[in-house]
Every structure is written in structure tokens, then in C-alpha cells.
Amino acid sequence: MRASLIQIAVDPDESVNSRRDRVASLVSDQRGADLVVLPELWPVGAFAYTAFADEAEPLRGPTHDLMAKAAADAGVWLHAGSFVERADDGTLYNTSLVFTPEGERAAAYRKIHRFGFDKGEAVMMGAGEDLVTVALPQTTLGLATCYDLRFPELFRGLVDAGAQTLVIPAGWPERRRAHWTLLAQARAVENQAYVLAVGTAGTHAGVEQAGHSIAVDPWGEVLAEAGAGEEVLTVEFDPAGVTATREQFPALKDRRLGLAPPSSGR
User: Looking at 57, 85, 121, 146, which residue is catalytic?
Assistant: First the structure.
């Protein structure tokens, strides 16, 4: 299986409309890939909080329609990264979209864990509530976004739902790049799954981005890693490697669930 991870540079001097058109062209150029993945909030920038409300779109808005067409033009499964969605009730969400090679929307995922603690995304956006998987002919994707990477229980839930390839678009800052690599490998090892983690490049809202998109196999080995700038990272992997790893080293069956909380010691 061939995946193209498109690490987009988010330049504040480039308009959202221009970037949409440019990214659509990049996706359309990926004919021959099976799966294309874009980063988190690439239309506006993950840290450009002040632009979220102005650039928010309905689920089926300009980003949706351009990405659907690009997927069909290339004949690829497309994880279109995420954008700022404005729901019918006015709530903003950090929403990812997946399209089939025919340009049909296969799934939408609203980010569950919002970053920012008491500011930014954490207070401006609603939290998603649903785990989302997508069955491709070759593998089943489990969807997560950026800060979700720090919460292993989410990925356990995705694996329990059948996920074999964990796809994580992000806008991860350079100052915590070591965590990005470490956590991507950890999620692969503990879930015996492939991880495709795609970040942004450049600097937006004053925050330097980590770049370094990464593909990791079920043993935690790095298959490919991008640099710091805009780049299309292409990786070939065998989805059957998940089944082989889980059979060779069947650690997942030894999970013990529902353990009682610790006693008070009395």
C-alpha cells in the first residue's frame, strides 16, 4: 500500500482560498497512491485562534467540496486533514474528513481532545464524542487529531473497533517535537498498528511548526520521516504486517480490563 503524507506549509501571507486551491492541486498530483493524508487545520493554521470564527465553514463547505474533487481527480482515498467546522447550532469543531477515490465523503471526525487548557481551541471549540474508523480495501483506518495523540485510551478504543492504521493529522509545535516522535512510536507499539502522523510546516500565529511527519510500523520502527519544510512524504507499507505482528507477539490479548480502583489501604 502506498501512502502520500503531504506536509503543508501554513504561511500567514497566503490566503485561505489560495491555500485551498494549492493543496487541492497537490492532492490531485498524487495519482498512483492508495491513501493521501493532509495535516490538521491547514486552511487557517492550528494556532491561528483569532481566525477560527471568521474562517469557519459548514461541514459541506468549500474545503469539503474542493477536497472531494481532488480525491476523485487523483483516484485516491483522501484523509483531508481538518478544518474549522461551524455546526448548525453555531458550535465550532476541529473536524476531519475522509473521501473515497470517487470523491464521496466516507467519514467525518470531530476532534475529541481540544488543546489549550483554558484558552484557544479548548474554549473556542466543541469536543467530539465519537470514535471513527474507516474501512479501506487494504486496511481499516482509526482517526485521531494532534493533541489526541497524548491519550492512549482513545487509540485502544479505535483498535477495539478494528483499526489497523492510525492516522493523525496535526499542527504540532517545534518546541515539543521530541514528544511528537516518541508518542507516534508509542501508539504504534502499544497498539501493534501502523501510525501515519502528518504535521504542518512553517510558522503561523508566531508558533514554529515541527514538521517531521512520520510513518511508523507495528514494531515501532520508523518507515519514513519528513524534514522541517513543506514536503510530500511517500511510504510503502504492507497492511498484512499488523496481523503478522499481532500473531507473532500477541500482547493485546493479555489486556486486563475493568480492574477495580485501588483500595484505601484500610
Answer: 146
